[in-house]
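Sharing a chain and its predicted structure for anyone who wants a worked example. Both blocks are below, sequence first, tokens second.
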Amino acid sequence: MPNNDGLTLGYRVRWRLTWLLLHVAGPAEQADDTDPRRRMERERAARVARYQAGQADR
């Protein structure tokens, strides 16, 4: 099984496209707590951490 950190292919593709669009056409760089790209990265890291915690329980 490939290492995809528990993220579906659809989620990973949509996440990458959204992140790239925000990078190109999004707001100017902001502080980490208000930057939408940083928020996306934090949410993705939390999702991966939840998946890994669930795998550790098995």
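Comments welcome. The mean pLDDT is 89.
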